[in-house]
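Supplementary Text 2. Reproducibility record for the structural model of the 441-residue chain.

All settings were left at their defaults, and a single model was retained for analysis rather than an ensemble. We include the record here because the model underlies the residue-level annotations in Supplementary Table 4.
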Amino acid sequence: MTKFRIKIAFLRLGISWYRFLSQVLHSLRRLLLGLARGLGNIGRRGIFPPVLWVYRLIFYVRRQLTLLFRPFQTTVLYFFSHRNILHLAIASLVAGTGLISLGSRAAAAEDLGTRSILYSLVAVAGDELIEEGAVPSLESFPTEYLVDMVAVGKTPAVDFDFINESYVSAVTGATAIEPAELAGRRATTARTSLTTYEVKEGDTVSSIAESFGLAIDTVLWANKLTVRSYIRPGDQLTILPLDGVLHTVKKGETLEKITKQYNAESREVLAWNTVESPDSLRVGTQLLVPGGRITPPPAPRRISPPTTLFTGPKPPGAPSVGGTKLLWPVAATRISQYFGWRHTGVDIAGPSGTAIYAADDGIVEHAGWSGGYGLNVVINHGNGLKTRYAHASKIYVKKGDTVSRGETIEAVGSTGRSTGPHVHFEVIRNGKFLNPLEFIR
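Retained model, structure tokens:
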């Protein structure tokens, strides 16, 4: 009896929920229909008429323009589709090219291609670079004009390509010379103050120096340039009124110290600058040092690569491991660079000083320094097979030694062209570099 009552109660509850949901859905349907009717009326009366009017206006204007330009379109199409228009275009192109070539000039080597259409399209304004430099000699009678001064300091291993200057000073010993025909062409306009000059297209340091009657060094020093520096159109250069150096007074400097630094005369400095006495120099004041010259820093001493081999006790070798393949050459396992068409071996990274082992029995063919390899050992294993172990920090063998498989021959380092401690391991057969990983067990 109780179960029957429970079922009746659930049935009544379900009927009540059904009636409630039906009423909700009916009300929602009436609401949505009302909204749809309202929006439809708004669209028909408020939106549709203006849109239709705009569409009709656009359609009318487009139709009128089509009728207006149709005859013109026919004429243009007829002109460009005529069979003789191609011949006329080719003839015009040939004639224009001929007229342009009549006004052309012979091009220097450095100007090759700079006047082409492609160059004008892809080149960026101001990107033409002109490198200043000195040449060993000139075919002319030299006239000495600066004693004990070098117009352009020596810079070892500098290429001076495409030198096409109207004036290039030559350096012989410690005296700068210039061609005789240019000796009398110095500017004579007297200047007593600094001048700012804006670099123009085609200017070089030598041409600017000549136009102001100055030595090349004076222009370079005043603008903190070197013979390797580039100047571009638009650059601002400081021009001194005479040859010398522009110096900014620093804390603790005296007139005597400054003149001694530039090998100049104190009275000349006082005469050219508004300095009442040698003791009245102020920090930050710019002084013109007439006749001064900047002594170039001494050339760095070339450090010869180490040629002596390590003579201390040799670390123990690798554990004896048999087999027909080569032994892993170092007590480290991380490969930092693999063999490839631009890399002739395998780089195995390891801490500096880690032992490097002979990959197999053989005779030491080379032990020492070899350019980018740094300290390295080459072992000849016979039958055309050789192995190289490069960038070592120490070498424990010498040329001609007989080494056994697993014997310690080097210590890991970073000598030569290297970015970190590792061993560069190469396998060479009959002069051909092979992938070392194919030979290692």
